[in-house]
Amino acid sequence: MAVSKSLESAFNNAMMDIYVRAKKEAKYTASIFHRMLCEKGGLATAKQLLNDATVSQGYTALWERGRLDLTVEAVVVDNPSWHQLFTDEELSRARKRLSDYGYS
After folding, report:
1. Measured between alpha carbons, how far is 90 from 81 in angstroms, rounded to an integer?
2. Neighbours of 103 (CB within 10 A)
3. Local confidence band at 4 (pLDDT 50, 70, 90 cut-offs)
4. Smallest Cα–Cα separation from 26: which of 55, 64, 56?
5. Alpha-carbon span 13 to 23, nearest angstrom
6. Greatest alpha-carbon span in the chain
7. Would you say the pTM of this structure is higher than 0.85?
8. Average pLDDT, the chain
């Protein structure tokens, strides 16, 4: 699957944006997430988190703050532009996690 570099770059920016917004709007500093973004980039970070067997500490922290909209799962699911970057399994896992935690 060939992914355009501009699409991947835009996705990386969207991932950094949720880090900044979580810090500012939810008073949550996602240090591990930020380090992953800096080391791996947004797409590789998202894929790692989506393919982990359980939700991350950051996901739980944002859920506790009522801000699932700032999770990787929500970014991926809510913007159809990003869907082509992910497998059907990854999209399904993201949707299920959001549903399980009451995000609509």
Report:
1. 15
2. 18
3. confident
4. 64
5. 16
6. 37
7. yes
8. 95
What total of structural domains would you count in the chain? 1
Question: If pLDDT is split at 50, 70 and 90, which confidence band does 69 have?
Answer: very high
| CB atoms near residue 56 (< 10 Å) | 19
Question: Would you list the DSSP string of 42-80?
Answer: HHHHHHHHHHSSS--HHHHHHHHTT-GGGSHHHHHHH-G
Distance of CA 101 to the CA centre of its chain: 15
How far apart, in whole angstroms, are the C-alpha atoms of residue 19 and residue 33? Answer: 8
Residue 27 gets the label, from left (phi > 0), alpha (psi -120 to 50) or beta, of left
Domain that holds residue 32: 5-100
**Owner of token pair 């059907």:** 88
| Residue listed under structure tokens 């859920």 | 63
For the beta carbon of residue 83, count every other beta carbon within 10 angstroms. 13
